[in-house]
């Protein structure tokens, strides 16, 4: 999962980022509300973890703006605010969970695993069945093997289906990152699996439900 973490306490932010990454998540961290908009403009995330009282636009305003723009990415608030009105506001805006500070990072991970990793169940798209946990691809009852790199590329694309995945994100998964190598690997995935992968010129690639 790709997580965007908004937390202005830099010590806590670094600690949470390190812990989440040790659990296998990819985490981008920002310290100001306005930084969230810059990151989400160029990258899609699976989960937002948002503090409320941060410089710039607060966490409530940030999520409200994202929701109004059609962003349906789930969000967890982490905050020292404990009054009922604040909790109600967070859920009314569209948060799916609310964790009061101070908290044990392990509790945060437990909530992520129980609520959001369930969404990473078998994906069915273009005649394929993909298990994102075991990373197996099945077509017409048969497992189709891909190499490690191509499996990583397919995983990133299919778990963000119907979204553009930026080329630079995909190139991070290559042994020798460059546009030509990315194009070759994408072509091989299309050929082996018999699927359509859209090249969005100047942006990246996308697997769509047909």
Molecular structure report:
The mean pLDDT is 87. The longest helix has 15 residues, at 179-193. The chain is of the alpha/beta class and 210 residues long. It has two domains: 2-119, 3-Layer(aba) Sandwich (Rossmann fold), CATH 3.40.50.2300; 123-206, Arc Repressor Mutant, subunit A, CATH 1.10.10.10. The chain is elongated. Helix 3 links the parallel strand 3 and strand 4 (75-79). A five-stranded parallel β-sheet has the order 2-1-3-4-5, sandwiched between helices. It contains eight helices and twelve strands.
The radius of gyration over CA amounts to 18 Å
- Give the H and E element order: EHEHEHEHEHEEEEHEHHEE
What does the overall shape look like? elongated
The fraction of residues in strands falls at 15-25%
Query: Which residue ranges are poorly predicted, with pLDDT under 50 across at least 5 consecutive positions?
Result: none
What CATH architecture of the largest domain do you see?
A: 3-Layer(aba) Sandwich
Largest sheet: 5 strands, parallel
The fold-level CATH name of the largest domain is Rossmann fold
Q: What share of residues is helical?
A: 40-55%
Number of domains: 2
Give the distance, in angstroms, between the N- and C-terminal Cα atoms. 24 Å
CATH top level of the largest domain is Alpha Beta
At the fourth CATH level, what is the homologous superfamily of the largest domain?
Answer: Response regulator
Give the class from helix and strand content and strand pairing.
alpha/beta
Average of pLDDT: 87
Count of individual helical segments? 8
Biggest sheet strand order reads: 2-1-3-4-5
For the secondary structure, the number of strands is 12
């Amino acid at each position: 999962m790709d997580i965007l973490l908004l937390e202005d306490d830099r010590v806590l932010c670094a600690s949470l980022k390190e812990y989440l990454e040790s659990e296998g998540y990819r985490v981008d961290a920002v310290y100001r509300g306005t930084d969230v908009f810059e990151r989400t403009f160029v990258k899609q995330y699976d989960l937002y973890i948002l503090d409320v009282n941060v410089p710039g636009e607060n966490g409530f305003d940030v999520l409200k703006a994202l929701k109004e723009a059609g962003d349906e990415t789930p969000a967890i608030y982490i905050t020292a605010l404990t009054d009922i009105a604040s909790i109600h506001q967070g859920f009314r805006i569209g948060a799916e969970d609310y964790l009061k500070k101070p908290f044990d990072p392990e509790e945060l991970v437990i909530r992520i695993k129980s609520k959001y990793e369930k969404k990473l169940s078998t994906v069915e798209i273009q005649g394929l069945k993909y298990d994102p946990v075991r990373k197996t691809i099945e077509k017409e009852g048969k497992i189709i093997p891909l190499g490690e790199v191509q499996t990583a590329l397919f995983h990133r694309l299919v778990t963000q289906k119907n979204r553009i995945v930026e080329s630079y994100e995909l190139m991070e998964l290559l042994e020798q990152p460059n546009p030509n190598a990315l194009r070759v690997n994408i072509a091989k995935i299309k050929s082996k699996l018999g699927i359509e992968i859209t090249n969005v010129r100047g942006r990246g690639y996308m697997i769509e439900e047909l």
